[in-house]
């Protein structure tokens, strides 16, 4: 097996292992089944968003509106449940609503070819403020009793959340490798024009990716909301940066065309456990943000350190010049 | 395809571009149109929108973001981006305050050192981007966390440096010639310098070349890496300069300075027509984009429209401008490729103009609709009024306008205060303006007060986030004859007429500690889940909690203080971790409204029936947990009554029935309320528990 292809994922995995070893030495109780379960349940929604973000970044775009969409979807999920929509129907409803919001981004970015960072910046502000306007900051309360854990009870509910996230991860990972649509994402992200000449329609791929991103946001928002019996109106603040950071730490190239969902899983796990790990190790939470920033930069530096060994810009340039 | 083009149709490139293109090389006229439309609308709807003082206030508020946007322009022109500018402001503010107060350096030296730190931070970005060829987006995303994190780590989030000298504060609060804000000159100088540098030097031209093609620029002999290095250092430098002005403006230096400013700056630049892919953008565009946003916010405030509209309209405007730009460019590009004659090109331009008008109209329809409504309502209110805009207390004939500001509009605590305020306003028939920052943001509070002074209201009632910073503007309001009340949290004593006092930080801290001692039986470990680590209120309560522990409860131990960032879900996971790391903790004290339900849910799901939750929160969101027995008690005062009392006191003050020296105040359904000197007392903190919580609905 050619490990060189996964060297970026390896770098993140090594960092994650180092973190686990350090926590393991200073606080072995970190590895209790209970703690691992809680970490998995708490990070499952973020992982879902990061999966969508991986697709968006693979295709060479970015979506920074996911946090605001997440908040809108959470509130909508609560209101729907309150209005008497059966719990079983919430799942398809939320996926549809999320997909619709994603489609707006997709239309503007894919078909009208507007830069995604600007479009989603506008959506980030607009959705968040629209939600504030409508809810005036009040939470959705007095939800039906079967809203929490879909009425399945805590143990089953927690398992369900993690299982859904893993099913999405595995199926998307498989589709990216083995389906034409998955390869098209890499193709468009690597070189949109070449992809077009090869018979892929870049516009449709970009549109589809944003719709998927939105659908995953809807799913994540619902899975997050059912963990509680009340829905707050300010959920998902800063979620977009968390998701982008997880994808980048996982080795995806922000310019598109390179990255795997395995890497995203490692990145999300690394960034999702760091705060808890610091508390277990007894390190002051004041330094948490600084350490997170340092990890992102370290992931980059390791990336280039590995890169430099092989094809560097200079190698290419000198070849060109000598011609 | 290969047909030769007839001689007559080959267009000789014009050496001198048409006037419109020379003046507005990047279609900036669209923005000017937007600005004019904004001014026209707000001129009618807004109170005192067209006044010299308002014009200058707008510039004062836009200096910090303006500086960031100005240096963001060359960065975006080269195809880069800098997300770390807001965080750098936080770090620079902390460094400035620390060097001045802890290291006792003179202010000038501290300021120079701060600028150096800014340049160093910029150099870190620059080195990673130019030497190691990383994408700027990712590098600055990393330093975005890093700088803010270091600032929080250095101050442990708690430190809030204030008490700066008058000369220094003059930089941010003073007026030159009694009218022009001091920092206005800095902005003008920065604009002029940037314009000259970008548009009149070969250095500036080279940045455009880099933006079009870095590789091409390199072959053309431009030292690409060096140029890029310089602009990122410049960005760090400008961020620290903005931080110095911010500190002088607010009178405080804290690690949360400049939160979210990076997005505002980028929005201004992009709205100004800069292409995010590089190669395009002008200083004029950036300045116009900046003012389009700032005037939108200011105008909505003066027209008493919901501030949330600003966000929605900014989003619409952003998409509309780039869409327009894309369409007009397509329209311009086609004639050249297909040799279409002059006349048709004109038509295309006019089509674009029509389209722009349509989009603008659509975007402003919402405002227009609301305006008509407000207008007619106002007409009703003003019937028989002699002096509608009188800011004196002579309010006979016209209903007093009471402007009330929470610390954060989205906070459920303040939402419940508004409930009471609305109730009282309806009973009294006064006009209530309710506006404030969406999240905790001291700079925004000042901005809103400034807008209210310009608008001319009768009473301003503020829940103060930053005591020092806001007192300057409150004094200014008093000078203008506006009555000033503080509620929930006090400003400096001489800056307000009355304080509506619900509980002192000491009272809150002591009550919380006593309640914890009661639950734990005076002995054991407990942990605190706070808001953010830099939240001023919470830090003050924690200070008094520790004081009370030391003097009265030697066997109670506070083992951890963890942040929740005001996010229920974060409070949930932090509590889970605390329960595992400190198995002896038998009580979680959550001291932010959303944190109590988060902590309660975590305790409930853990199945630990020996652990209880208490804290400071609202009854409604905790009812299920109180009945479950997870939350033992919630400490708070009746926030609905607080809002209600504030409006009653404000009305009494406006109509002259409340004066210094009064012993009591008649407050509607609350009956007679005690007044001591200049404080109206709501009463002691209240403890909600299983027995009484169902009687309250907020």
What report would you give on this structure?
- The complex is a heterodimer of chains A (323) and B (698).
- With 323 residues, chain A is mostly helical.
- Chain A has a single domain, classed as ABC transporter involved in vitamin B12 uptake, BtuC (Orthogonal Bundle), CATH 1.10.3470.
- In chain A, helix 2 (33-58) runs parallel beside helix 6 and helix 4 (87-111) runs antiparallel to helix 9.
- In chain A, 73% of the residues lie in helices and 0% in strands.
- The longest helix of chain A is centred in the first third of the chain and has 26 residues, at 33-58.
- With 698 residues, chain B is an alpha/beta fold.
- Chain B folds into three domains: 51-299, Orthogonal Bundle (ABC transporter involved in vitamin B12 uptake, BtuC), CATH 1.10.3470; 401-502 and 640-683, Rossmann fold, CATH 3.40.50.2300; 505-636, Rossmann fold (3-Layer(aba) Sandwich).
- Chain B contains 24 helices and 18 strands.
- An eight-stranded mixed sheet of chain B has the order 6-5-7-8-9-17-16-15, with helices on both faces.
- In chain B, strand 15 and strand 16 (672-676) form a beta hairpin.
- Chains A and B meet through helix 2, helix 5, helix 10, helix 11 and helix 12 of A and helix 6, helix 12, helix 14, helix 16 and strand 11 of B.
Write the layout of secondary structure elements.
The complex is a heterodimer of chains A (323) and B (698).
Chain A: H1 7-26, H2 33-58, H3 66-82, H4 87-111, H5 116-135, H6 154-178, H7 180-190, H8 192-197, H9 202-225, H10 239-249, H11 261-280, H12 288-308, H13 313-322
Chain B: H1 19-23, H2 29-45, H3 52-77, H4 85-101, H5 107-131, H6 136-155, E1 161-162, H7 166-173, E2 175-176, E3 180-181, H8 182-200, H9 202-212, H10 214-219, H11 224-250, E4 252-253, H12 261-271, H13 283-302, H14 308-338, H15 342-382, E5 401-405, H16 412-428, E6 431-434, H17 442-455, E7 459-462, H18 467-479, E8 483-487, E9 498-501, H19 505-520, E10 524-530, H20 536-552, E11 556-563, H21 568-581, E12 585-590, H22 595-606, E13 612-616, H23 619-628, E14 631-636, H24 639-654, E15 664-666, E16 672-676, E17 679-681, E18 686-688
Parallel strand pairs in B: 5-6, 5-7, 7-8, 8-9, 9-17, 10-11, 10-12, 12-13, 13-14
Antiparallel strand pairs in B: 1-4, 2-3, 14-18, 15-16, 16-17
